[in-house]
Amino acid sequence: MGKVLKPGVVIKGTKDGLLFYLDDSRPFSAVLEELKHKLENTHAANIWDGPDMKVIIKLGKRQISQVEESSVRELFSVRKNLIIQGFETEGKHYLQGMEAGIEIKSGTVRSGQVLIHNGNLLFIGDVNPGGMIQSSGSIYVMGALRGVAHAGCHGDTNAIIVASLLRPTQLRIADVISRPPDQWDESETGMRFAYLSDHQIAVEKIHQLGQLYPDFEWKANRRRFS
After folding, report:
1. What are the structural domains of the chain?
2. CA angle 225, 92, 96 (to 5 degrees)
3. Per the database record, which ranges form the Septum formation inhibitor MinC C-terminal domain (predicted)?
4. Percent of the chain scored above 70 by pLDDT?
5. Dist. CA 56–CA 88, nearest whole Å
């Protein structure tokens, strides 16, 4: 008898929604075809046509390209109630090449200004109250973050927010929002970073970054924001 292949797509329900596990040992094209079949299967209408559900795509050890990510999102477009919250890959960023890519910008984000960036961003300067930085990747502020920072704005739940002085009016990572305390403890100094843990934003001192993200590394290109 021939070897029986394990499913290319396994779906598991959680209290927060659905997890789609995509087999990283199979060609991605074959996994996409199986995913397409599952999503278009009318026999599963009682599952697919229910209330809105959050979806996390688990990629195993596989990294995908932006084109492959778009292909997955397009397949899910046939089920309007299935809302992709993010993609996850074990131990690294889910998009190919993202760890090595970070762009540097400098200046000041003043009240009423919004700095929008695609990818990982190192910002040298301050983000004033009323100002906002929004990025599809991680945000690193070498200065005071006193405004709003939204990392992973396209659904990247692995994105982080780092600041030399972390005093934001609001933090967002993917679709999770964290509001600050009514009054900051000004005795707490030093660089800190925010990340998602169990669908909530957690804040740690910067020395914890290497323990939580052991493969962290980056290269940079520099530009000025005005």
Report:
1. 9-88 (3.30.70), 101-224 (2.160.20.70)
2. 70
3. 106-203
4. 80
5. 7
Report helix, strand or coil for 95: strand
Per-residue pLDDT of 124-146, as tens digits, reads: 899 999 999 999 889 999 999 99
Burial of 183 (0-12, 13-18, 19+ CB in 10 A): exposed
Round the average pLDDT of the chain to a whole number and report it: 82
Q: What three-state secondary structure class fits 171?
A: strand
- Extract the residue ranges of the chain whose pLDDT is less than 70: 1-5, 42-48, 93, 97-101, 180-189, 210-226
Opening angle at CA 223, ends 114 and 116, nearest 5: 20
Q: How far apart are CA 91 and CA 83, in angstroms?
A: 24
